[in-house]
Amino acid sequence: MFNQLKNKFKTLPSHFWVLVAIICLGIFMRTYNFHAWLDFGSDQVNDATRVGDVIEGRAPWPAYGPDMGNSGKGGRANRFRLGPIYYDFEIVSAKLFGNNPVSMALPDLLFSILSLPLFFYFLRKIFSVNLSIALTGLYAISFYALSFSHSAWNVNSIPFFSLLFLAALYEFMLAKEKTHWGWIVSLGVALGVSIQLHAILLVLFPATLFFGWLFFLRKDWKIWKKMLVVILLMLILNLGQIVGERQNDFKNTKIFLDSITGPSTKSQDSWLVRASNDLSCNFQANAYMLSAVGDGNCDFSVSQFLAGGGAGKAFLKKIAEPKFDLKIVLCLLFSLLGYGMLVINFRKKNQPAKKYFLGLLLLYMGLSFFVMLPILDSAIRYFVHLFFLPLILLGLLTEFLAEKFSQKYLAPVVVLFLLIAGLNLNATYLQIKNNFVQSRIILGPVEEMVSYVIAGSNAQTGIYLYVDSSALDYLKSLRYIASQKGVALLKTGDKDVVPPGKAKFYLSIWGGSPTLTQINGMSYADYRLFDQVAIFHLTD
Fold first, then answer.
1. Is 151 helix (H, G, I), strand (E, B) or coil?
2. The pLDDT of residue 517
């Protein structure tokens, strides 16, 4: 038996082991210090509280998931809510591994890891083994992908389910009525899950499927039975939300329809301005997702010229800087050349399988552009459903160079790939060096802060906190972790009198060693810095 396994391993090609090494590297970078670096800001605390209430029996299984910003009117309670699948994943994980923030983040971590081999499979539909491995390697260390990895967030699983949706739909396009049932189930599951992960996918995926099916029916009307199975699976996965909607007079659906048909927050902008914003952000997203160059926001658009006033002057000042001009040129050059290669390869008639795949990507890209026209935000994180696009554009450009310059292309392409890898690793290193403090609240320091105040409280179960306005964002996270340890953190105002003998602390964002001798008229016996946060142990 051992010899048979040994011989089997010997027959595996060398690229298999390279791929395994890349996947292991990707897993390492997604799991390293997972607990300590886990994002645990306000949204994560809200989600953990909801899930914890279900686990502890204080609330029923949810019919709805997270709410979407910029939707509805009259505060957060009236926002559009996604389906509950994200909470379902967290609840199951918390039941299996414990009611804590790390357990709730494990499903996102799992799907992030599974996206690595799925991405390689995805790339193999159009590229050679070596090129697919190289592109998978870039994805494994992608700063953009890794920026989501240490977090429990409803968009984190989008890369995996986007790949699964498109791969299954592609197989459907090729095989039609002979499509394997495994792909039919995969398509139904990917659709049913994805439309509950983000409002963009709620529109984009059904639209892509609809136009894809128009193509199917034109070729072979017999596939309608398998289409029904896909729809049935989607409905089953959304059953909780459907029941909830019937019980609530379809209130959530009405909020969604009002959000996409009512007056836009950008109603003063013409469609020309919106289209220019959309297009320029697509170009910048391609460059940022590939190389990590930039700050994660769109900072140039034709609309800034049209805006005039302060915005127009600020943009004119920017374009006077050579580095900014170089960024614009490189973004435009990469995207335009890449899109050109996409169209050229699609029009080639000698590779029908590749033609179908690239046609599907063009459909998906085009629909994405229109879906994001009215809701586009300046943050590039909203392009996560297109995370694979810049890597595919890079692959198509690499193929073009290989075709035109034969062996002479190899050296510059290797240098380019190494440069892109270096930029991503450098961005990741800088974020680790700063311990994420510039971008978010993370679990490790929060737990250390709670341990510090508990240790100085003489076993009191109620600890008073004076919180400076600069550190208010930390309060909710601290209270959650303290409550898991059976301790209540009681926020108190500057003028409130705390009874003598009660444990009390002052929380503030601090840039260095304190020079104050008193805080709110009280002395402090001790203080400790936690990255950018200082906690002072106050005395009577």
1. coil
2. 57
Which letter, b or e, does each residue of 292-304 get, where b requires 16 or more Cβ atoms within 10 Å of its Cβ?
bbbebebbbbebb
What's the CA gap between 104 and 91, in Å, rounded?
7
Write down the pTM of the prediction: 0.90
Chain-centroid distance of CA 395 in Å reads: 23
Phi, psi of 391 (to 5 degrees): -70, -35
Tokens 């690239």 locate to 358
- For residues 275 and 372, give the distance between their C-alpha atoms in angstroms, rounded to a whole number: 9
Alpha carbon distances (Å) from 442 to 242, 433, 450: 35, 14, 13
Helices (H) and strands (E) in the chain, counts: 22, 6
Between CA 24 and CA 2 the distance in angstroms is: 24
Which residue's structure tokens are 């910003």?
A: 69
Token pair belonging to 180: 């394997």
Residue 461: DSSP 8-state: S
Q: Give the C-alpha distances (Å, rounded to integers) separating 388 from 188, 189, 379, 400, 459.
A: 21, 20, 17, 19, 52
- Mark residue 273 as left, alpha or beta (left: phi above 0; alpha: psi -120 to 50; beta: remaining): alpha
DSSP secondary structure letters along 72-116: SSSSGGGS-B--THHHHHHHHHHHHH-SSHHHHHHHHHHHHHHHH
In 3D space, the residue among 195, 180, 152, 185 whose CA is nearest the CA of residue 35 turns out to be 152
Q: Is 535 helix (H, G, I), strand (E, B) or coil?
A: strand
HEC profile for 257-311?
Answer: HHHHHCCCCCCCCCHHHHHHHHHHHHHHHHHHHHHCCCCCECCCCHHHHHHCHHH
- Determine contact, residues 477/444, Cβ cutoff 8 Å: no
* DSSP letter for each residue of 243-255: HHHHHTTTHHHHH
C-alpha pair distances (Å), 290 with each of 117, 331, 423: 19, 11, 9
Per-residue pLDDT reduced to its tens digit, 504-537: 898 888 765 555 556 666 788 788 888 788 888 8
Q: Supply 60's token pair.
A: 């029923």
State which residues of the chain have pLDDT below 70: 1-10, 69-77, 176-177, 217, 219-220, 259-270, 300-320, 349, 375-378, 434-439, 494-495, 511-521
In sequence order, the 6+-apart residues with CB closer than 8 A to the CB of 455 are none
3-class secondary structure per residue, 349-415:
CCCHHHHHHHHHHHHHHHHHHHHCCCCCCCEHHHHHHHCCHHHHHHHHHHHHHHHHHHHHHHHHHHH
518-519, strands of its sheet edge to edge: 488-492, 462-467, 504-509, 533-538, 522-530, 518-519
Q: Which residue bears the tokens 């923030």?
A: 101
Q: Strand pairing of 504-509 and 462-467?
A: parallel
pLDDT attached to residue 436: 55
| Residues in the chain, overall count | 540
